[in-house]
């Protein structure tokens, strides 16, 4: 009997862990455009996404060459705020699963 209870608790913990992982499985994507300068993109990533300067420069280069770059991963609510701020700066961004 006690072993069954331990197993049930384990299954519950595993289900909770899967929900947490799924909640953190969102990605903030930044897309290339023909309007914004490298400096604007870099400054925005530093200010909004809390990137270090080198990280922001690398992301801007990837966006320019590949067309898009995942600039942040995490919970949807946190990324939603960042995405809105990027969009307000006229950058092309979205949240993906």
Summarize it.
With 97 residues, this protein is an alpha+beta fold.
Structure description:
This protein has a single domain (2-96), classed as Ribosomal Protein L30, Chain: A, CATH 3.30.1390.10. It has four helices and three strands; from the N terminus they run αβααβαβ. The chain has helices at residues 2-23, 38-49, 53-66, 76-88, and strands at 26-31, 68-74, 92-96. α2 (38-49) crosses α3. The protein is globular, with a radius of gyration of 19 Å. Mean pLDDT is 84; it is low at 1-13 and 15-20.
What descriptors fit this protein?
97 residues, alpha+beta, Ribosomal Protein L30, Chain: A, three-stranded antiparallel β-sheet, 63% helix, globular, disordered N terminus
Structural class: alpha+beta
Order of adjacent strands in the largest pleated sheet: 2-1-3
Which regions contain 5 or more consecutive residues with pLDDT less than 50?
1-13, 15-20
In total, how many beta strands? 3
Content of β-strand? 15-25%
Under the CATH scheme, the architecture is 2-Layer Sandwich
User: How much helical structure, as a percent, in the residues?
Assistant: 55-70%
What Rg, in angstroms, do the CA atoms define? 19 Å
The total of helices stands at 4
Mean pLDDT: 84
């Amino acid at each position: 009997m006690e072993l069954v209870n331990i197993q049930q608790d384990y299954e519950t913990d595993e289900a909770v862990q899967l929900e947490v992982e799924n909640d953190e499985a969102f990605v903030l994507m930044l897309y290339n455009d023909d309007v914004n300068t490298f400096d604007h993109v870099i400054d925005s990533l530093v200010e909004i996404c809390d990137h270090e300067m080198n990280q922001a420069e690398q992301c801007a280069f990837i966006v320019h060459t590949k067309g898009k770059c995942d600039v942040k991963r995490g919970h949807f609510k946190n990324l939603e705020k960042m995405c809105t701020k990027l969009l307000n700066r006229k950058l092309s961004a979205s949240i993906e699963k």
